[in-house]
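User: What would this chain look like folded?
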Amino acid sequence: MSTSSSAANAGPTPENVFRPPPETSGDPSDSSSSSISNITQAIPFSSGNPRIEETTGVMLLYREEVDSASPSALPIGRKPLVCVLGVPNHMTYADFCQFCGSFIQHILEMRIVRNDGMEDRYSILIRFDGQDSTDNFYKHFNGTRFSSLEAEVCRVLFTVDVQYTGSIEHAQASPASSTEQPTCPVCLERLDQDNSGILTTICNHSFHCSCISNWTDSSCPVCRYCQQQPEKSTCFVCQTSENLWICVICGFVGCGRYKEGHAIRHWEETEHCYSLELETQRVWDYAGDNYVHRLIQSKTDGKLVELNSHCLRVTDGCGSCDCADSGFSEALLNSKVEAIVNEYNELLTTQLENQKLYFESLLQEVQDETETEISSAVEKAVTLKLQKMQAKLDRCLQEKKFLDDVNENLLKNQEIWKQKIIEIEEREKKALTLKDDKIKDLGEQLRDLMVYLEAGKTMEQLSVSNEVKDGTVVPLPIESSSSRNSSKGGSKAKLRFGG
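Assistant: Here's the prediction, encoded as structure tokens.
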């Protein structure tokens, strides 16, 4: 199996780094291979820039139940080759190098690959300088979180073998690149595993680990291919996902002229003449009927190349067409280029000014709507508050009226009770007066009785002593108390003595 020359230019080929095993014929070793297949799993993978070249293969990994059967018992017959599965796309190359920084000096090769069905994650094949380093890496990082703020954990599996099944080239390879020595595009030094570890990105470009650690972006420094691909867009009209162009003025996404031509129809309707091709990130000028770039990305190796200004039918971005007129002079070409640049600047300025006015009007409308909504909300809030306060005031007035009625009734009751108390006091006074009079009458009667009794006793004593002779004691009748009360004084009993 042969790989693309562009991969050779970028760094060591997959066969040199992860060499596939030789094919075996029918022999007794087939039984051992069948026993190994019982504890391994095959995971297909791919790598490379889809616009240039894709490499496919299969990774033979030990199953997780074999690796996790016992922390101290590692698979028998393992190699210094592991695979880190399911690394999140938001982790850049520099982030992963920092994550495994304590083992970076023991790493000989790291290769980034894609797994089928896992668009938001990627896997990393790592080859170490020894089995001890591999075992320590597995024990230290297997089951460890990539970050304390995230739930994703590092899944490390020992790798039995890596087999490359094919390579698909989407562009013609450059014949001169096959003779170039593999060097690091950052430091331009030779890619030597003995001096520093080598990291091969998902687009098959190789760098020193120390060089790529300083690259904080998720894209490749050579071809700008990004490992975190955006969501697939579709045409706003026909919903196709092929040959899409987006208007750089208003963001309309439409299909190209080789599909339904909705992008060019959008230009005819709105006169937005600049459109960006989503696949190649090139900007097309419908007014000038050409690309606006002087440097474009080559489909051969992904590098930036100069676009010939006198190429009239640029279709693949390489400028290799037969329409070049060798009779044009350099001054004529320069004048045309300057005229095109000036026209482009004027058109761009006009479009930007129109877009500025358009968005300013949108902002003004939004501001007016916001002010209207705020005023209506304030008015509604004030009205609601006034209604609540009015309801509270009505309740207070009702309570005040009720309390006034209660107070008036209490005052009336107070007057009534005062009169009753006065009447009761007068009756008590009369009763006391009558009682005092009665007691006085009873006292006078008692005194009269005592006088009478004393007079009788005296008379008895006189009769006994014979001091009264030939005489008769005649008692006088006692007048009733009522007659004494009417005369306001009673007469005392009179003793008459006769003889």
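The two ends are 189 Å apart (CA to CA). If you want, I can go into more detail on any region.
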